Amino acid sequence: MRSGAAGLALVAVACGANRIPVDVARPHASAPSQIHSSVSDAVPSKRPALDHAALLRASCDRTSTSALPVAAPRDGSSSVAIAYAGDDTLAYVADADSRSIHTVALSGKELSRTELDASPRQLVLLGDGRVVATLSDAASIEVLEPSSETGRPMTVLCERALPAEPWAMATDDKSLLVTSTFGAALSAIDLATFATRRTVALPRDPRSVIIDGSRAFVSHSVGAKVSVVDLATEAAPTEIALGMRKRVETPDPLDKTVIRTASHGFALARVGRRLLLPMTTVAQGRFDADAPATRSYYGQLPDGVPKQAPTVMVIDGATRTALSKDILGTTTALYTRECLLPRAATVSDTTLFVACAGIDAVLELDASAVDPMRAERARFKVPSDPEGLAVDARGKRLVVFSQIGGTLTVLPIGSRAERATTIALDYEPTPALAAIARGRKLFFRTDDDRIANDGVACASCHIDGRDDGITWTTPIGPRQTPMLVGRVVGTAPFGWEGDQATLSDYIFHTVINLGGKGLPEGDRADLAAYLEHAAAPVRPAVTPNARGAELFASTGCTTCHAGGSTDGEKHPFGTVTGDSLSDGTNTPTLRFVAGTAPYFHDGRYATIESLLADKKSHMGTSASLSDADRRTLASYLRSL
Amino acid sequence: VRAWPAALFVVACHAPPAIVSPRTNAPAPVVASIAATTATVEPKREDLSDGDLLAEDSRPTLRATVEVDAETLPIATWGPPRKDSWLSFFAGPEGFPRFHVEGVSYAEVRTGDFLGFTGKIDGFASDAWPECGPGRPSRPATWRGISVVDWNDSRVTIMMSRGVLDGAACLATATTTLVGRAAAIVPRFVYALRFDRSIYVVMPAGPLAVATDGRAGHGSFSAIVLPLEAHHEAAAAVRISNFGLERWKAMPQLSSLEPETSADPSTCPLATVEVRARGDRLVVALSVATVWWGQDVAHDFVAAVEARAKHGEHD
């Protein structure tokens, strides 16, 4: 699976594009994505070499019989997990930046650091003390055994391959469920053998998962939905839509029918049968012909409820229905203090805790409320990029992992008298990641009025540097959010209009369109550097699709998308009412096109297949292909 | 809804109301409460350490929540029309449109898109006044609200009437009437009763009232209707101002108050009324949240909710 750097040369030839230099390709990634995963490439010198080929075949059974720390019960997974070793309380922390799992005594000391050669994203603890980590940039999970000796790192027992970008997990007595974000799948793994029993295709960007009896509920960071997978049968998954209406004091009659979409469904928590999903509800704007021309970029002007507003969606797990249907406009929003990038959630009794990137805070909410986001008991300041939460029920503490800087914050639950403590971890980000740290922080700020006048961050629409799957109203017509990471090197000019020669120029104009006060050149350069070098999805190697490549050329795709990239030119296409692109659309790169639905600048095609089948799409001669060939071509495109 | 400066006329309901209520003499029993108090001093953000409470610039912070089982709230049903209950629209001095409600001390009026409230001195109305005159169509109308008769800390009388507004005469008489005693969720300040698989909640007013899939309005008081349906949650939010609270306190005496000039919504306590699903059961929750810079606004109301949450009864 991890076969060395040969794939790099192959891709360099295939793409024929100028790319940033890569020292070491992710050995088990498919060729195109290797090129874009530069920040993941530096390997700590002290890291022990792992034989991944052997680990893929190895048993995941424990190698010792000594007692291991006992897991604190929780739903789902997070980047921090609590375990008890006698009277001591431990936290295991998945530190993706450092490619390590930290073992920390909550009394204040890091006990050990287990270095890996990929980025651990989330952890679950099994009943016998073993630790399972998703390796998001290695398309695999690893099962580890903590050492019974204090201070010694964990032992990697085995590894299992999974669809691209394994993210979150949940367990019951027999199964381990794993979501794969870019792979758009849920894998059910037998806990006895760690063999994959079933792989369920899901809508794009599944994130968190919770098991509720015989069903699994899966959140999605894109698409305003929760997937429900029946674990007892092979039935196809169903979806619970999470649209929302806006309610204000005196609504414009036209606005009464506006359904808001939602994004940033990274987290799931549960109190009884109430499933809680911190999300961002979004007014992308109206597209019907009777709607007045919009004056604002990227969605509706705030009119009682901001165009992006935080909420906690509630689902009745027993009836599998969304209880959240409306969002209330209660006053002028404190734009720069909103939790627009929720990244983790956990519960303690009837309290819901939500970790918010962008404002670097943890919210304490009433989980019983109709919209817990509007029932805030308190909020706490935490270090940059909080993305992991766990409750130490025994010690009545909340443990928060902040990724940038690698810090644990331990907050007392229910007591304002006790002070919080912080524990600095042995944080050692890869050099490439450290080099883009400034741009990374800036990209996620929701409290910077230089970027936007309504608290929106770059990451609000470009989720983790990618896209939100939303087509927005703008004064120049509907425009869908493009994926950025892994797609901006060698693809100038930028923008659907192709009117910005450099990324910095494009950022300059985007910030203005967002109502921001503007960013100086240095900050724009930092953001551009982040986008050029941030990690793109890493996918398992796939069998070359020769027939698909042949069809890609023979149907004329290569005319504009040579090597799957872009010719940097504008081409005329049909436009919709109010669209300014009468002189053509800037050719987008097709890198990672599998994970960027919908398609076309105005998002008119929901799937690649529908785009290829439409004669009006101007996609070469793909519409005249047989169904079988079109499927083959679509499959090839998904491998790009 | 905007303040309408012209005087309105209110006639108290004098006839003894017909009560259809299993509980009339006690506040609704509290089934659960959550009291959450946080520091209210103003910290400086830049001086805060990691893990410190952020109180200076957050959303309104939840101060207390009172929950009552929806089944324990009084229930009222529609009955024969009250002959002394009617509604009329007319032109007042200087041509200002006006409306009059007979039979209810303080009423909210809904017909078409029109929403108005009666008050002692000032009224409140939306812009969608019904058009009246020869040939104008008739339309359904509802007027409902508070009768000051028998109003005490633990109950208040609610009267509702439905009728048809005659387009020519601009007059509606009741075709059916409901009278009931609402029980206090928060004694003296928040009352509720059940009707038509819904709850009707009255409470002090301020610069905002909004509901999810029910109806909310504010004028001389705030009035909320939320559905009571299995597995269905609903919510309403009300901003309560100092003036709205003072008016509320004066209402039982039918006292006059000058109109409010302005109130900054963001400083006003945010009272939230919710219908929450607890499995197959429904509870009605009343929460109050404040921001640190609005600590002095409607303080009595906030204190009453906190006391109810803490002690289960009015202090």
- Proportion of residues in β-strands of chain B: 35-45%
- Helical element count of chain A? 12
Which percent range fits the helix content of chain A?
Answer: 10-25%
Largest sheet features of chain B: 15 strands, mixed
Write structural notes for this entry:
- The complex is a heterodimer of chains A (640) and B (315).
- By secondary structure, chain A is α+β, with helices and mostly antiparallel strands.
- Chain A is 14% helix and 30% strand.
- Chain A is built from twelve helices and 36 strands.
- In chain A, strands 18, 19, 20, 21, 22, 23 and 24 form a seven-stranded mixed β-sheet that branches.
- In chain A, helix 5 (437-443) crosses helix 8 (521-533) and helix 7 (503-513) packs across helix 8 (521-533).
- In chain A, 57% of the residues are buried.
- The model of chain A is unreliable at 1-45 (pLDDT under 50).
- Chain B has a 15-stranded mixed β-sheet that branches. A six-stranded antiparallel β-sheet of chain B has the order 3-4-21-20-19-16.
- The longest helix of chain B is centred in the last third of the chain and has 13 residues, at 299-311.
- Chain B has 315 residues and is mainly beta.
- Residues 1-25 and 36-43 of chain B have low confidence and may be disordered.
- Chain B contains two helices and 21 strands.
- Chains A and B meet through strand 28 and strand 31 of A and strand 4, strand 16, strand 19, strand 20 and strand 21 of B.
